[in-house]
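Researcher: Next entry: Geranylgeranyl reductase (Sulfobacillus benefaciens).
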Amino acid sequence: MDDVIIIGAGPAGSTAARLLSQRGKHVRVLEKSAFPRKKPCGGAITSRALPLLPQSFQNHVLSAPVFWTFRGRKGARTIPTSRPFCYTVDRTNFDAWLAVEAERSGAKIVFGTTVTAFAFDGEEYLVKTSQGYYRSRYLIGADGAKGISAKYFGLSRAHNGAALETEIPLALAKDDMNRVEIDVSRYPWGYAWVIPHGSTANIGIGSFKAGKLPSLKHLLQDYMKRAVPGLGTAPILAHPLPYRTHFSPLAIHHGLLIGDAAGLMDGFSAEGIYSALYSAHVAAEVINAACENKTSTDPYNTLIRERLWSQLKPALKMSRLFYPLAGFWADWFLKHTQLLEEYLALTQGDSTYDRLLAKTQNTLLSQLHFRSLAR
Ligand SMILES: Cc1cc2nc3c(=O)[nH]c(=O)nc-3n(C[C@H](O)[C@H](O)[C@H](O)COP(=O)(O)OP(=O)(O)OC[C@H]3O[C@@H](n4cnc5c(N)ncnc54)[C@H](O)[C@@H]3O)c2cc1C
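Model: Predicted structure:
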């Protein structure tokens, strides 16, 4: 019997596997795909996530953007940063590398094995897969937005937005190779992006309220025509964006959820890799202690609420403030570039959504005050 079984070898699952194996736990990861596999993703990892990754991460970086172009209805502004605000990766290689790092630490990864059900008998989990049964004392659900873990743990599922992306070969000018573009001008509850990946660019569109859009695919094709004139057709991939509107327990008995399986995506930016890595670190800490003391995973609920939900909740507030009036706020942010700078500081770990929210409200209040004084 294993100490811990982890369902899914995405960034969340492989990170938890690496950390628990490093602490001497017997860890098995069950992954339905054969690696390397493609995961639809822009592959932009904010700089604040760097301490959560193994040191050799830099060998897998395609570009290190220091320019951020923010596009609204009335134009665009490009903000430079003195150090990269994100690092871009090819998710196929990045995920394969994280899995190898987990194996190097001693974790066993069984690829091509789909978990179809599991049950807890009060002492251990019995996990049913396409290849047979496995047993463990602890279980981590890291099976992403389309996973089954939340259902079998009996924990609440997240809301789903949707995103589409495509990867195109693009001979970018030197500055553009380190420039991320975000367009918030016409995509309800979301935005379109161009993210440099070395000799290619990732172009995509995401929306937290996908049902409200006439067709994400047409919007993406339209954006691609404007962003890269003369571009032919390219294969487009779609995937859900799982996010929570309220905190609810993510751990039960000897099990817990991490990453997209837990719906821990940032509800404003749709950044999910940082939360996947962060929750994997917290999960490893909790399960390591629980294994030693034969206790439940309950402390994970408090720790995630205090350390991560405390960041995600104000992100959601920002989302509820920004997206219903995205046209207005986009123009406002273009006029008040200190707000764009504050967001970039957040991606670098030097600010918070609470500060961004307060600054956004203060710019508005001071403008209203100025106008009433001028009357
Ligand atoms: C189009 C798009 C663009 C995005 N761009 C960005 C970005 O630029 N930056 C960013 O930070 N985030 C981005 N995200 C979000 C990011 O991709 C996710 O948050 C991240 O992949 C979550 O990692 P994870 O390990 O939790 O899940 P995943 O990466 O989804 O991994 C889950 C793994 O579980 C496996 N699995 C699923 N079910 C089973 C099963 N039953 N049995 C066994 N294995 C199973 C899957 O095969 C998969 O390997 C984007 C999302 C989308 C859709």
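Model: Note for the record: Residues 7-13, 30-33, 39-45, 114-115, 142-144, 147-148, 163, 165, 204, 239, 241, 259-261, 265, 271-274, 276 surround flavin-adenine dinucleotide (CB under 6 Å).
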